[in-house]
Write a structure and sequence with these properties.
171 residues; mainly alpha; single chain; two-stranded antiparallel sheet
Length: 171
């Protein structure tokens, strides 16, 4: 019989620590399921301007930067990093996804791991509890932000896994 549990990451208030542990666990889960797709699978789009594994991974990183660094901490994003993440070419709300760079999975994971290391450090400076900021006509707590990023990454990580499976069968 297996016993599964997740403990809050040490060094954070419990609410942030548990959410960050969930984020890390979810990342490990979808990365394990994705396996090691080749460059062709990473850049494959089932239709022009559509999703791709690479596009989704870049978007995951861009969203993590936005919420943790720009929204919560008020920092201006690094324009070079935003260029690598193809923020200007991606319009998620209108379903427009760029063809991602023809790079191996390690390129994408390198970008995401750099961002995640900053996230884990940045969240240490978040105040505990109900700190909130205004956003699009409402307020969002920092705790909600962490929860939202967990959900967002799980959603798109699952899409990347599905695209990997489709790419194996469609190409």
């Amino acid at each position: 019989m297996h016993h599964f549990d997740i403990a809050p990451l040490a060094g954070y208030p419990d609410d942030y620590g548990l959410l960050l542990a969930s984020l890390q666990d979810g990342t490990n889960e979808w990365r394990g399921e994705l396996g090691h797709p080749g460059v062709d699978a990473i850049t494959w789009q089932p239709y022009p301007g559509g999703y791709s594994i690479g596009g989704l991974l870049l978007h995951i990183g861009a969203v993590e930067v936005y919420w943790f660094e720009s929204f919560c901490l008020g920092r201006e994003p690094d324009p070079v990093e935003m260029g690598r993440l193809m923020v200007g070419e991606t319009d998620v709300d209108n379903g427009t996804w760029p063809v991602p760079p023809a790079e191996p999975l390690s390129y994408y994971y390198g970008l995401l791991d750099t961002i995640r290391a900053r996230t884990l450090e940045n969240v240490r400076s978040f105040p505990a509890g109900e700190t909130a900021k205004e956003h699009h006509g409402g307020s969002k707590t920092f705790r909600w932000v962490v929860s939202h990023v967990v959900q967002h990454e799980a959603y798109h990580g699952g899409q990347a896994v599905l695209l990997g499976e489709l790419a194996k069968r469609m190409r």
